[in-house]
Design a protein that fits this description.
Distance between the termini: 58 Å
Number of helices: 5
Structural class: alpha/beta
Mean pLDDT: 82
Largest sheet: 10 strands, mixed
Number of strands: 10
Strand order of the largest sheet: 1-10-9-8-7-6-3-2-5-4
Low-confidence stretches: 136-140, 241-245
Helix content: 25-40%
């Protein structure tokens, strides 16, 4: 399902359009670099020039691995958004975060081809499989999400038709909450913050501004969901009699 154009611009349209133009201009300038260097730079560009500047103060951007209380591990993730009270472990330059404190994960790609989408979904599927302990919101102000938000961001990508065909496969059901492509717009999953009358699982919203606007909307809308939330990590320390050398 596609969101049509009403002819009236949202109040924040100019801000997100200009932000998208800045990111795209820098992306186009660096496309001639070698692939590995380009990917790393584009990820840093997105995090430093946009993401870290718009996140609420209680959220920070890090890279590392997520662990759950049953021994599940995601492997290295390049963009992990954390609560300010997230329990973390350090291994020199590498960090691991306990799943209960993770707010979201964003897979960043330069060009979201079908193959790169499959790669991103494989990573997000590992995030989805994490087992989180209880201790949900005690007081909330807004939408509640008791698990990490799972997003994909890219500068350019395949057609909506190609991406939607892949996202609609049974194994990819409910894996990505949001797919944002700077040159194209956003694919929004049904049933989180937006709902519509038909049963189609995704909404597509065209436009460069839309890609950043809907990412911002999801991040900020859910950022209140852990206000005064308890965080229990007791199960990471059980059994209590298992600590002897």
């Amino acid at each position: 399902m596609n969101i049509g154009f009403s002819g009236k611009r949202p109040i924040l349209y100019d801000y997100f359009k200009k932000s998208a133009d800045v990111l795209l201009a820098e992306y186009e300038r660096t496309k001639e670099q070698q692939a590995s260097a380009n990917i790393g730079y584009n990820r840093e560009l997105f995090c430093n020039n946009f993401l870290s500047r718009v996140l609420p103060p209680r959220l920070t951007v890090r890279r590392g691995e997520i662990w759950d209380s049953e021994g599940g591990k995601t492997g290295q993730l390049e963009v992990v958004i954390l609560r300010d009270d997230t329990p973390s472990l350090t291994f020199g330059e590498a960090d691991a975060f306990l799943a209960e404190g993770v707010f979201g994960v964003i897979e960043v790609k330069s060009n979201l081809t079908k193959a790169k989408l499959q790669e991103a979904l494989t990573t997000l599927r590992r995030v989805k499989s994490l087992k989180l302990l209880g201790g949900g919101p005690k007081m909330t102000a807004g939408s509640v999400l008791n698990r990490p938000l799972r997003c994909i961001f890219a500068y350019e990508g395949a057609t909506w038709q190609t991406l939607l065909q892949e996202l609609s496969k049974p194994e990819n059901y409910d894996v990505a909450d949001l797919v944002c492509i700077l040159k194209q717009g956003a694919i929004i999953s049904q049933g989180l913050l937006l709902k519509w009358e038909d049963n189609k699982p995704f909404y597509t919203c065209n436009g460069k501004a839309a890609s950043l606007a809907w990412l911002y909307f999801h991040l900020v809308s859910y950022s209140t969901s852990f206000f005064a939330r308890s965080l229990s990590i007791k199960h990471y320390f059980e059994p209590l009699n298992g600590w002897r050398d």
